[in-house]
Amino acid sequence: MISKTWSRKPVAALVAMAILSVYSMVVLASPAAKAPSGELSIAGQVTVNGETSISGGTLFSDSIINTAENSVATVNLSKLGRLQLMPTSNLKLSFTEKSINGLLDNGTAHVSTLAGTAVNFTTKDGIVVVDGSQATSFTVNVVKGITSITTHSGVAQFNVGSTSKLVTAGESATAGTPNPKDDPGDDDDKLSGGELAALILLGAGATAAIIYAAMHNNDLNFGGNAIVISPSK
Question: Each residue of 103-139: pLDDT tens digit?
């Protein structure tokens, strides 16, 4: 009876080891196990997927990065390249073994890639595309409704609607319509209650003056020059 019990223990151990080996092989062969990752370097306050992050952390694909004022996040993607997100920026970053994809909601991103890395960076105004045929470095900036791209080395393609433009090293391109309300961090665009009341009174006074001038055939000269801002092409 004792000999049978001892003989069963080695068999059970061997079966457990075999199951563990098969499970390990399945896990290593799964796509999740081979998913690329990046190393995060932080200066200031940065969150990833809503959680505060620190330098040295690992960043996985489909992460949302937010940088506070005076804060910068740098992502080293090893064989793909490197990305630097400047202060007050919001970016969803995705990547595979051969490509980098970004959705920049606002702020500034500097992207440097190695040859063989394709890039697709999207803003609400257009898409920046790099085919990966050569190492490329560019900056995408989204501020107050305007998207701008500047290529530092290599070539990037800027697609806006049905139009497309190649932006070579040293060149820039812009798209969008200026909208100061798109910059939540700009205190100059916010009016206090007192300032709003003053503007209302000023408008009422100007209206009364215009009516008075019209009735009395007087000329009014407010002085100054009007500045018209038109979208960059």
Answer: 999 999 999 999 999 999 999 999 999 999 999 999 9
What is the four-CA torsion angle of 205, 209, 211, 212, rounded to 10 degrees? Answer: 130
17-34 exposure pattern, b = at least 16 Cβ within 10 A, e = fewer: eeeeeeeeeeeeeeeeee
Amino acid at 26: V
Structure tokens at 111: 């992207």
92: helix, strand or coil:
strand
Q: In whole angstroms, what is the distance from residue 44 CA to residue 51 CA?
A: 14
Name the β-bridge partners of 47: 52, 66
Contact status, residue 52 vs residue 45, Cβ threshold 8 Å: yes
Q: How far is CA 171 from CA 68, 97, 128, 144, 150, in A?
A: 29, 29, 14, 21, 6
User: pTM of the entire structure?
Assistant: 0.64
Long-range contacts of 30-39 (CB under 8 A, 24+ apart): 34/97, 35/60, 35/61, 36/61, 36/77, 36/78, 36/80, 36/95, 36/96, 36/97, 37/61, 38/75, 38/76, 38/77, 38/78, 38/95, 39/75, 39/76, 39/78
CA distances from 101 to 93, 117, 189 (A): 6, 10, 32
pLDDT at 16: 53
Query: What's the one-letter identity of residue 217?
Result: N
pLDDT mean over 25-51: 76
pLDDT at 218: 45
Could you report how far apart the first and last alpha carbons of the chain are, in Å? 90
Q: For residue 223, which amino acid is it?
A: G
Q: Which of 43, 72, 79, 74 is nearest to 59 (CA)?
A: 74
